[in-house]
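user: At home tonight, take the chain set out below, taking as long as you need, and be ready to discuss the fold:
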Amino acid sequence: MFAEVAFPISNFKTFTYEIPKNLIAEIHIGSRVVAPFRKRQLEGIIVNILKNSSFKGETRLINKLIDNYQIVTPELWELINWISNYYMTPLGQVAKTVFPKSLSTRYKPQTLWFVKSRNAIDLLRFEELKNRAPKQYEILKFITKESYPLQVSSLKNFASNPLQICRSLEQNNFVKLFEKEVIPNSDHLSFSSINKKIILDEYQEEVANSIKKSLESSTYNPYLLHGVTGSGKTEIYIEAVRYCLERDKTAIILLPEISLTPQIAGRFKSVFGNKVALWHSKLNQQQRSWTWKEICKGTFRVVIGARSAIFSPLKSLGLIVIDEEQEASFRQDSPSPRYHARDVALIRARLNKAVILLASATPSLESYYNHKKKKLKYLNLANRFGGAKQPKVHLVDMLKEQEETGKFGQVISGFLQNKIEERLNKREQVILLQNRRGFSPIIKCGECGEVTMCPNCNVAFSYHKKTNILLCHFCGFSKINENQSCSECDSKNLLYFGAGTQKVQALLENTFPGASIERLDMDTTTSGINITKILTAFYSGEIDILLGTPMIAKGLDFPNATLVGIINADQGLHLPDFRSGERIFQLIYQASGRSGRHQKQGEVVIQTYSSDNPVIKCAAKLDMDKYYEIALKEREELDYPPFSWLSKIEIAGENYQRVSNLASTISKKISGEYDGLRILGPAPCYIEKLRGHYRFQIIFKSQKVIDPNGKKLHSFIKANFHNINQIYPNSQSRINIHFDPLSLI
């Protein structure tokens, strides 16, 4: 018997191997194996099984089977093939994404040594140890004080090798020594189980009943759940999952931000207990390995996590929820496959005949348009739960503020400062949003005007004062701000422009010295524990002011948070990208929704330098319908999604001229056109240099009136760019294909 194996390499070729006789019964299509590839052992996936091989050369043997039972369902295998075909990514690379390396059903948790004193100890012999073996005496004395087994490694304060000493004590019948599997615990990555009784109001009941009917039918049903902030969408998810589990089905809940996971996980665990698994990048390797194995075994029936959770190897999948479905973080742009988890989720739901909820207070324009076109069933929660009122919104024109006060570059307006003080005096909490981390985003020489730039990217360094480093937020390159002088003219007159979260925090601490202030951004949340710790402290009222980047702007529910301040609402508004307005509107609307979600009415203060901009005006009125009407009209006029299909070819390399020449060559070699297709470029990307590589792009737009399902564009791209990196193998540049890109920057 022979097998065709796909490896995680950049071409679509598969390789023929002989299946060892002892593995013939265990190997199936979709099985992961280790096989010799050139001079190394490589992990691959079985894509076909053959009785005979047509390969004329020497056929090598598969070395081993990674999993000890079949984990790929027919639906999951079909999904893998769909991703490979749609995103033009070799099967081996897709399999590597779906089943990450080092995860296996054979995983065994770490085994640790434990020690416990015996019930009866000969006191005379115990005292003899004091002189004969003082270290044994000290350790035994400590052990006898504890009624429960102690981890041997915790005794290192007494001796460098406590295990050896414990073995000696065991030989002398003083202690009992034993090994125990330690299950990796991820409970610290979620809130303590929040035992909140779920009582649905009449509007929630109506929505929940619609979902239940679909779950009963076991047919593919895609919904857009459009609920205003604070309308109780999480309660709907819980009720839908409960109904799903009662029918012996499983569920996936996708969240855009890891910061959302602790609170929602706590809610779900209070209802479903140990059936709930967390899956995101903050899990360590032991937690990931154990969780994945238990998902495969069927121990976990509900998986909550970031975009990769969509690949959870659950069986009998009945429900998928995409919370905040409009979020860009559901898109993976590197490495291949460059997929959108929302779109993959829709396909997985269809293949599994499952219900899928695309949920948001501010749906993506595409989802909103698809509901209008009846491609998605529409569910609406138009009111806040429990009769809570929408917050009062105040728009602060920072240009007028400058004129009136004579203060330029003010970070916190007088109006916002007064509002913060009001809320603190009432013992209420404040959330402040600043869409920049670090201290200052731009450092400029006051003499020659030189801006301190990242050597790898065409972007300015951000200054992080606390660590005194210059950091690029795109590639991660950093250096110590040693000389604090201009690299061009050596002047010490450096000007620090703009304000990041560090600077805002320093200002707040000076202005409100009695307040407890905490910052939540990428710098303070290096682990999932930190995120949970900060959010738990804010929820319990230990923190007065929570300052953060957009990770705090959505999905979180804090009963005593009654004021939200958006410090720089313009950030990103004027970028040359067709989605920039939509993103800013959604961010402002979502951030506003964190205020006054319960009995106390909330307020929102939006600081802006563009008070007449339609995006800002509509966001300030919380008028989503008006803004979406404007945005859809603009998109239609400019022929952008949802009125067209979009693809992008990106050429990147270390040599500018080579990249430019290759982009021109590719553009000239594109063959064939069709009615409704527009090709833009080649042209340099907005951020021309990124991570040490110069970038050019070619944009393809295909009108939906002519190409309703996108097949024409997909076929065109496939015909011209299939295996493109093999067509230009010596170009010293990478050519990446992006289907349905979210950004053209």
Q: What stands out?
A: The mean pLDDT is 90. The chain is about 30% helix and 25% strand.
